[in-house]
């Protein structure tokens, strides 16, 4: 198996996508943050010192998706057609789901994964004063479509 991010001298390189076909690409990623019941309640009731945690996490997630190529060394800077962030309550915290779309020569999975990660980190940051035991977990790609590798759907 040839690694695509290494050149013939085994040095890092950015993959050349110049010859790839432009296609509509969609990626959905998710992740969870687990916390104490009191922390979740404070977030839902907007009684943390830092304000509206979930709304801020949504904005942060969108911003994070837009900064992906600045954070991940070999990631291409792509035009993002849209990003939608959903936050669901789970038993002991919250789940963030990010859907990212592009019409490009390369995928948008990293942008969706980065959105989830930044959103979860924002929740942690805004609630850490009341709960330093929060845990970020299960950050994963749920679905992707478009491009040469086609569709992926987590089982």
From TrEMBL:
Keyword Lyase among record annotations: yes
CDD domains listed in its UniProt record: MoaC_PE
Binding, substrate: 74-76, 110-111
Listed pathway(s): Cofactor biosynthesis; molybdopterin biosynthesis
Active site: 125
Domain Molybdopterin cofactor biosynthesis C (MoaC): 14-147
TM helices/strands, residue ranges: none
Alphabetized Pfam families for the sequence: MoaC (PF01967)
Matches recorded under InterPro entries: MoaC, MoaC_bact/euk, MoaC_sf, MoCo_biosynth_MoaA/MoaC, Mopterin_CF_biosynth-C_dom
Keyword annotations: Lyase, Molybdenum cofactor biosynthesis
This enzyme's EC code(s): 4.6.1.17
Any one GO molecular-function label of the UniProt entry: cyclic pyranopterin monophosphate synthase activity
Catalytic activity of the protein: (8S)-3',8-cyclo-7,8-dihydroguanosine 5'-triphosphate = cyclic pyranopterin phosphate + diphosphate
This protein's record includes keyword Manganese: no
GO-annotated biological processes: Mo-molybdopterin cofactor biosynthetic process
Family: Belongs to the MoaC family.
Subunit structure: Homohexamer; trimer of dimers.
Described function: Catalyzes the conversion of (8S)-3',8-cyclo-7,8-dihydroguanosine 5'-triphosphate to cyclic pyranopterin monophosphate (cPMP).
PANTHER family per UniProt: MOLYBDOPTERIN COFACTOR SYNTHESIS PROTEIN A
Protein name per the record: Cyclic pyranopterin monophosphate synthase
Native organism: Caminibacter mediatlanticus TB-2
Gene: moaC
